[in-house]
Specification:
The complex is a heterodimer.
Chain A (H helix, E strand, L loop, with lengths): L2 E5 L3 E2 L5 E8 L9 E7 L6 E7 L4 E3 L7 E6 L4 E6 L8 E7 L9 E2 L3 E5 L2
Parallel strand pairs in A: 2-11
Antiparallel strand pairs in A: 1-3, 3-8, 4-5, 4-9, 5-6, 7-8, 9-10, 9-11
Chain B lengths: L3 E4 L2 E4 L5 E7 L8 E6 L6 E5 L3 E2 L7 E6 L2 E6 L8 E8 L5 E3 L3 E5 L1
Parallel strand pairs in B: 2-11
Antiparallel strand pairs in B: 1-3, 3-8, 4-5, 4-9, 5-6, 7-8, 9-10, 9-11
């Protein structure tokens, strides 16, 4: 059974660094052709792709946010991490992680999401 | 950069009505990498249709997807109450590798 679960600070102040963790089970990032994706969604708005990381440590970032994003993984603990530097109120959103196998580049399993509020 | 435009942004349908929503790409894309997700309020998105026309596990047969090139669509043959949701199209492409449409919110009339 594939599951993913996001965790984060809940609330943080502008200019701080947001650290998010995606803990997963039922698959491995040691497996060839596996990937984990981060997506976010401001309340009442659409989905925005942030970054993803492949089993071979290949990393891709949304160009609009690339300078502020860092994605990494710990395959031994089945976790993927995302850091967003210098947050502001526009980063307030629900953050999701999802699994994406290579076959069709489709996100077949999603976490429940973690809500993050940036506020002074 | 390829942009996905979904239309309409909001629509309403009566129970039993046929529903069609579209996703238009700014350039021709591979149908293998064009997908649809369903999202209900308070829940995470769910994979609904992958590679243009393949229903994800558990998706009712009243749903179908089609398209090629720049034009893609999701159709419900007969609207049911449980189909009220927001539907997003998603593309995996070369650069940037991921983009989503703005979503179509489907309501019950």
């Amino acid at each position: 059974q594939v599951t993913l679960k996001e965790s984060g600070p809940g609330i943080l102040q502008p200019s701080q660094t947001l650290s998010l963790t995606c803990s997963f089970s039922g698959f491995s990032l040691n497996t060839s052709s596996m990937c984990v994706v981060w997506i976010r969604q401001p309340s009442g708005k659409g989905l925005e792709w942030l970054a993803h990381i492949w089993w071979d440590d290949d990393k891709r970032y949304n160009p609009a946010l690339k300078s502020r994003l860092t994605i990494s993984k710990d395959t031994s603990s089945n976790q993927v991490f995302l850091k967003i530097a210098s947050v502001d109120t526009a980063d307030t959103a629900t953050y999701y992680c999802a699994r994406m196998p290579y076959d069709y580049y489709v996100m077949d399993y999603w976490g429940q999401g973690t809500s993050v509020t940036v506020s002074s | 950069q390829i942009v996905l435009t979904q239309s309409p942004a909001i629509m309403s349908a009566s129970l039993g009505e046929r529903v069609t929503m579209t996703c238009t790409a700014s350039s021709s894309v591979s149908s293998s990498y064009l997908h649809w997700y369903q999202q209900k309020p308070g829940s995470s998105p769910k994979l609904w249709i992958y590679s243009t026309s393949n229903l994800a596990s558990g998706v009712p047969a009243r749903f179908s997807g089609s398209g090629s090139g720049t034009s893609y669509s999701l159709t419900i043959s007969s609207m049911e109450a449980e189909d009220a949701a927001t539907y997003y199209c998603h593309l995996y492409h070369r650069s940037p590798p991921m983009t989503f449409g703005g979503g179509t919110k489907l309501e019950i009339k």
